[in-house]
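User: Hi! I'm working on a homework problem where we have to compare a predicted structure to a textbook description. Could you give me the structure for the chain below?
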Amino acid sequence: MQTDIDPRSLIGRKAFDSHGTKIGTVDEVYLDDATGAPEWAAVRTGLFSRDAFVPLEPSKVVNDTLRVPYERALIKDAPDFGVGRHLSPEQELQLYHHYGLELPEAPETPAASSDPSGPPDGDSGSGPGSRPDRDFGRLAGRED
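Assistant: Happy to help. Predicted structure tokens:
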């Protein structure tokens, strides 16, 4: 996604799928706690429906709309976590798997890079379960 856009400006924009079909309206934007970058948007899929989380990285803002490069059916089948709360690492992992996305690299911390012994218990430190615990998905515009 464009990195120069204020994530709060996405709220209220119409969202469309890969075929140009309207998905709904962006309800909330979630930021990665480690980087502060916009990572997920909750899109209200209908008047009596729910919010579906969509990834912002492959999405684009085009002509004042959010274009999500996935089909509407996949988006509507995304895990439902409700909105207004912090996404846990487990919830975000479910979303990455649902959309078939690669997990982002966790930023290297000075403590981790200075320890020559590596991870405890012989863990190689690779794979989706090896990312250090960190919070994900804080809401844009909120200071918790």
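For your comparison, note the following. The mean pLDDT is 79. The longest helix spans residues 89-99. Good luck with the assignment!
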